[in-house]
Amino acid sequence: MLTLAILIPLLASLVLAFVPLGEVASRWTATGAAALSLVALVIVWAGGGDGFRAVAEVPWIPTLGIAWRVGVDGMSLALALMSALIFVAATAWPLKLHDARAYYAWMAFLAGVSIGLFVTLDLIVFYVFFDLSLVGMYFLIGRWGHGDAQHAALKFFVYTLAGSLLILIGIIVLALNMPTLTFDMRAMIDSPPLAAAGMVPGLVFLAFVIGFGIKTPVFPVHTWLPPAHVNAPGPASAILAGVLLKMGTYGLIRIPLQMMPDTFARWALPLAIVGVISILWGSIVAFAQDNLKRRIAYTSVNHMGYTVLGIAVAGSALGSETARQLAMTGAVVEMIAHGLITGALFLIAGAVWQRTGDYHLPNFGGLAGPAPRLTGAATLAAFASLGLPGLAGFVAELHIFLGAFGVYPWLAAIGLLGILITAALFLRMLRQMFFGDLPKERAGFTDLDRTETALLAGVLILVVLIGIWPTWLLSLIDAASLIPTPGAGG
Amino acid sequence: MPIGDLAPELAVLLTAVAVLLLAMVLPQRRHGWCALLAAAGLALSMAFAWAQSDAHRLTFSGTFALDGATTWARFAIPGLTLLCVGLAPRWFATDRRHGEFYAMLLFSTLGAMAMAGAADLMQLVMGVLLSSVTGYVLAAYHRDWAISLEAGMKYFLVGALANALLVIGVVFVMGMAGSTDYRDLAGAIPDNPVALAGLTLVLMGLFFKLGAVPAHTWVPDVAEGAPAPAAAFLTVIPKLAAAVALYRLVALTPETQALPLLVALVAAATMTVGNLCALWQDDVRRLVGWSSISQTGYALMAVAVAGAVPDALPALLAFMSVYGIANLLAFAAIVELRGRTAIADYRGLIRKHPGPAIALTLAFLSFVGIPPLAGFLGKFALFVATLEAGLAWLVVVAVANTILSLFYYLRVIGPAVFSRPEGAMATLGGTARATFWALFALLLATTFLWSPVWSALPRALLP
Question: Which InterPro entries match (chain A) (predicted)?
């Protein structure tokens, strides 16, 4: 079933590459493929179970211990579901395009590899999907972006490939230290291969942190993100922020935290500090941006900082078990919430670009009059992003900070400042865009059409649902099972 | 003399002679038949190799090793040469010496095969010289085009020096160890400065064939100036053979630490120099040339850990196979585009000619090692072997270089895919196009064939 969820979009992308479909047919092929993937994942979810479920394995290169292994636990299933949903929304999003068929082929391709990354249980297959996501995004930004898109795409690709190669080295060292050469994630989680002390585990850990840190991105390796976002088309930005950034934090949990827990515990404090710096840096820099997309992009750095803080707390082996579980729950919920919220925000930014070709905030104002639906959606998403109680972002941040206060109270206190600044910057953005006087050149601004409204509503309803009644998500994630017992191996 | 043991080599030799005779009797416009004959001879050679594929012994008084590595070379070298032959007919259609090109190509192939199987230093010298001398001619085959002559001349000057050093090195080693036979040399080369200097000089000769630092300077010139089918041949086939020969040589001295260290340093220098020089190239053929130098650097990682880990040899052979296919594919795309070479001329290529554009993209991404392309699997095997042997620093250098290389590959891919085309773009067509698609399919198929091929590759060498 999980294999199907990967293969359907990949097949759709092949079909789109070779069959001369029209623009509308292409769009529905890609959307339909993403939707079918979503259905397959929902079926797995409905099947229930504990630990890794829906497991399947087909040998690929047995002599090297590489196989096509798929299976999900609560965290990866939740992330895969969220990714599939964002892909449905992003591919269905109406867009004026050149070479539409190729665009939708790449979108379907990205959907397949992104879902694949979250559901695979083999480190090499994981790496394959990790790199393919870069290739897909490179072509999307370079070909359909605006502004200096080629340069942004190049920077994105080179930067993140650097990260992924570090990850590859780490993966190989982990596998070579297993009793028999294997890239099976479950085997490595059950018996972590490297001891805590010594140079090698430290360096491997560093390689993973830098590698996943670039993708997440955390300060100071976040500089590829703003140009990539600004120049990408709106739906591609939504995917970049909503899905691709999660690969970094997902990897951080799956590999360093679960496969080398003792080393992780030794280095949790520096990682937490990096998280807090990202929180502050992201929010302060976002505050200073006049470009709508750049501002949202920097809030991604801020929000992923919360996630990293949560992950560091969860793997710190300090404080009470409850605190660590709270932080882990918060980190995973933050990934889901940020995916949905920022996905929605970037779709909204894409809608603004479609209508005006402009991201410069001072050029806007008073859009609440001509575009009430757009205003409503943007307000809801912005409030969710700044952590208003009753919405998804609040649930996540509450968990993270409750956990963090139990382990690193000072860091948590500093991190709280970030929430304050984020609130200020989103309120200012809303004021600049939607209230005040409507500038003359924006006179003909049209509101969201029916498709756009429906798609945004679909995403934002979930944001509200998670905010009001998060239990279903929390029980799906089952954070307790994600945190390895300290001293279990090596 | 078990003459049948050399049936694959003899098939190539006799075909070369036959091609030469045929070219003399046929009128110039029918020289395409020579290509067909050459192709048939190469296929026959591979068939003979197939028949001997499980041999594991020395032959011809111990000068030639029939083992897994030779078998690999007997498939890879004629097989990839066959594809080079496919690129040539239309390219040389107006050349007065069209038919002789194939004879020269086959003699060079024979030299490469002799080099790969050599189990004796004298035999090695013979193979290297045959491969080099014919190579100079191939590089300068466009006799009235200055750039081609320059390429041939540079290749010749660097080659003459390197080959002279090789011969001197062989003399040193023979003088110190008392033999040129690998059976006698294995583990018996005395650990004194003269013998070590001799080995180093021998390595220098092979570094020349591989295009490794410091004897790498001919590669970009040949890639740019030689006729594109010959450039494809010269940047791939001699390298395959030299990689095997180098591995055999390094494996002879398991207890010396100096040799692997030297190879590791050369590997690091080669990949770095190749990449740095490729960075700002505005000429795609030169860029491919420099990139092939950096690829050699990666391959040398496996030689540096020769004997230390069991998977070093298969990693080397697998990486070289994939490199050969991808490099030929890149050149095939260039041939199909009639040798077009300035980066600016590739703008918007994908809209005019999606096939070559996608092929170049795939070949370059395979060089970078983007999964699941076969180049990733090759690089992955290299990294595993090198990390297992504990040379982590070399892997880090390789990773840094890989990132660097992505930058210049994207300098070609980006404009080709993202920009709008300007002006018309002619293509060559004919067998070149067919060969191009064959290589395209081969590169894609390699990913799926990886698992059986990997288990079939040899782990050990004679002697």
Answer: NADH_Q_OxRdtase_chainM/4, NADH_UbQ_OxRdtase, ND/Mrp_TM
**Segment A8-17, tens digit of pLDDT:** 999 999 999 8
Distance CA A264, CA A266 (A): 5
pLDDT (tens digit, 9 = 90+) per residue, A285-342? Answer: 999 988 888 999 999 999 999 999 999 999 888 888 888 999 999 999 999 999 999 9
Distance CA(B157)–CA(B151), nearest Å, equals 10
Inform me whether the pLDDT recorded for B130 exceeds 90.
yes
Q: How far is B181 from chain A (nearest CA, A)?
A: 34
A438 within domain boundaries: yes
Q: Are B396 and A162 inside 8 Å of each other by CB?
A: no
Interface residues from chain A to B (CB-CB < 8 Å): 59-64, 124, 127-128, 131-132, 134-135, 138-139, 142-143, 149-150, 153-154, 157-158, 161-162, 165-166, 168-169, 172-173, 175-176
Q: Which residue from A minimizes the CA distance to B390?
A: A173
Query: What is the distance between the alpha carbons of residues B235 and B289, in angstroms, rounded to a whole number?
Result: 7
**Mean pLDDT for the stretch of residues A457-470:** 90
Mean pLDDT of B301-325: 92
Check pLDDT > 90 for residue B120: yes
Residue with the larger pLDDT of the pair A33 and B190: A33
What are the angstrom distances between the C-alpha of B295 and each of A205, B195, B202, B262, B270? Answer: 28, 29, 21, 18, 8
Closest alpha carbon to B114 in B216, B258, B257, B12: B12
* Domain annotation covers residue A487: no
Per-residue confidence (pLDDT) for residue B102, from 0 to 100? 95
Judge whether A490 lies within some domain: no
Give yes or no for residue A487 having a pLDDT over 60.
no
**Percentage of chain B with pLDDT > 90?**
71
**What average pLDDT does range B185-205 have in this prediction?**
89
The pLDDT score that the predictor gives to residue A53 is 84
Place of tokens 């360096």: A203
Average pLDDT over residues A96-104: 86
Distance CA B311, CA B265 (A): 20
- Measured CA to CA in angstroms, residue A435 lies from A137, A361, A364, B215 at distances of 35, 12, 9, 69
Render pLDDT for B209-265 as a digit per residue (tens, 0 to 9). Answer: 999 988 999 999 999 999 999 999 999 999 999 999 999 999 888 777 788 899 999
Q: Give A416's contacts (C-beta < 8 A, 6+ positions apart).
A: A401
CB contact (8 A) between residue A63 and residue B399: no
Are A169 and B387 in contact (CB < 8 Å)?
Answer: yes
Q: Does B396 touch chain A (CB under 8 A)?
A: yes
Name which of B418, B448, B453 to mutate to probe chain A: the one with the most chain A Cβ atoms within 10 A of its Cβ: B418
Asked whether the beta carbons of residue B399 and residue A169 sit closer than 8 angstroms, the reply is yes
B371 touches chain A (CB under 8 A): yes
Neighbouring residues of A340: CB distance < 8 A, sequence distance ≥ 6: A82, A85, A86, A242, A392, A459, A460, A462, A463, A466
Q: B302 in helix, strand or coil?
A: helix
8 A C-beta contact, residue A158 and residue A188: no
Name the average pLDDT for chain A.
Answer: 89
Q: Which domain holds residue A396?
A: 2-481
pTM of the model: 0.91
B415/A131 Cβ within 8 A: no
CB contact under 8 A, A161 and B387: no
Burial of A345: CB neighbours in 10 Å, binned 0-12, 13-18, 19+: buried
Q: Does B370 touch chain A (CB under 8 A)?
A: yes
Nearest by Cα to A236 from A297, A319, A315:
A297
* CB neighbour burial string for B385-419, b if at least 16 within 10 angstroms, e if fewer: bbbbbebeebbbbbbbbbbbbbbbbbbbbbbbbbb
Residue A89 pLDDT > 50, yes or no? yes
Q: What's the whole-number mean pLDDT along residues A256-265? A: 89
